[in-house]
């Protein structure tokens, strides 16, 4: 882990969030301090980096810490960067769609199909 | 300590680590520690299209507590040795 210090990293959290930032500190529990942290929100082919500032992440929430290869393209070329407002709208639309699917399923449950 | 030693012997081999969130990552085992945290090199995600954010990750650290399976190369497993080590461990060293 020492060689990751002062590098730009991607931290995957247990709730599926993706944080990026510069590693300033860590310990044996994988508690980490990220400077200039930002969250990368991806909805379909849209993405947005939302700046967060200095973050201390409790180790138990960490899934994976990845070293970002700055030489390579960070994301596939077909993905487009959008504003924070736009990604929030896309996120809400996606959530509404899954909620609707869930509620439809619930109402149809008596049919007992699978 | 058995599995810690066991994984240490596998350093340098190609393994696939499947996580509890269903993300599966293949790479060369670089190191492992007492918590079975794993470091992989030259990683690639098995289902790349589903996880576009992992595209530029070459090396990574995986927290031991989130690992579900580690898929090993068959030639990396010496079952006789593992049997002996298990019996020795059960007897208390």
Automatic annotation (TrEMBL), chain A:
Gene Ontology molecular function, alphabetical: mRNA binding
InterPro entries tied to this protein: Lsm1, LSM_dom_sf, PTHR15588, Sm, Sm_dom_euk/arc
Ranges where the Sm domain occurs: 1-71
Subcellular location: Cytoplasm; Cytoplasm, P-body
Domain of life, source organism: Eukaryota
Keywords, sorted A to Z: Cytoplasm, mRNA processing, Ribonucleoprotein, RNA-binding
GO cellular component assignments: Lsm1-7-Pat1 complex; P-body; ribonucleoprotein complex
GO BP: any one term: cold acclimation
Function: Component of the cytoplasmic LSM1-LSM7 complex which is involved in mRNA degradation by promoting decapping and leading to accurate 5'-3' mRNA decay. LSM1A and LSM1B are essential for the formation of the cytoplasmic LSM1-LSM7 complex which regulates developmental gene expression by the decapping of specific development-related transcripts. Required for P-body formation during heat stress.
Subunit details: Component of the heptameric LSM1-LSM7 complex that forms a seven-membered ring structure with a donut shape.
Family listed: Belongs to the snRNP Sm proteins family.
Protein name (database record): U6 snRNA-associated Sm-like protein LSm1
Origin organism lineage: Eukaryota, Viridiplantae, Streptophyta, Embryophyta, Tracheophyta
UniProtKB/TrEMBL annotation, chain B:
One term under GO cellular component: P-body
InterPro entries, alphabetized: LSM_dom_sf, Sm, Sm_dom_euk/arc, U6_snRNA_Lsm2
Family indicated by similarity: Belongs to the snRNP Sm proteins family.
Localization: Nucleus
Record key words, sorted: mRNA processing, mRNA splicing, Nucleus, Ribonucleoprotein, RNA-binding, Spliceosome
SUPFAM superfamilies found in the cross-reference section: Sm-like ribonucleoproteins (SSF50182)
GO terms assigned for molecular function: RNA binding
GO terms classed as biological process: mRNA splicing, via spliceosome
Name of protein: Sm-like protein LSM2
Coiled-coil annotated residue ranges, if any: none
Organism ancestry: Eukaryota, Viridiplantae, Streptophyta, Embryophyta, Tracheophyta
Function: Component of LSM protein complexes, which are involved in RNA processing.
Residue ranges annotated for the Sm domain, each copy included: 2-76
Record organism: Coptis chinensis
């Amino acid at each position: 882990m020492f060689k990751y210090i002062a590098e730009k990293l991607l931290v995957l959290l247990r709730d599926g969030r993706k944080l990026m930032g510069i590693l300033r500190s860590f310990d044996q529990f994988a508690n980490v301090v990220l400077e200039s942290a930002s969250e990368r929100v991806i909805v379909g082919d849209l993405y947005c980096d939302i700046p967060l500032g200095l973050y201390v992440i409790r180790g138990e929430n960490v899934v994976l810490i990845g070293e970002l290869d700055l030489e390579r393209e960070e994301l596939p070329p077909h993905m487009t960067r959008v504003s924070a407002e736009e990604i929030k709208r896309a996120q809400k639309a996606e959530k509404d769609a899954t909620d609707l699917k869930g509620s439809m399923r619930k109402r149809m449950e008596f049919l007992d199909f699978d | 300590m058995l599995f810690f030693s066991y994984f240490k012997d596998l350093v340098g081999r190609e393994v696939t680590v499947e996580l509890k969130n269903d993300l599966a990552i293949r790479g060369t085992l670089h190191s492992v520690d007492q918590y079975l945290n794993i470091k992989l090199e030259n990683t690639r995600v098995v289902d790349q299209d589903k996880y576009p954010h992992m595209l530029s990750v070459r090396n990574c650290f995986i927290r031991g507590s989130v690992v579900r399976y580690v898929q090993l190369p068959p030639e990396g497993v010496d079952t006789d040795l593992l049997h002996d080590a298990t019996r020795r461990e059960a007897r208390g060293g």
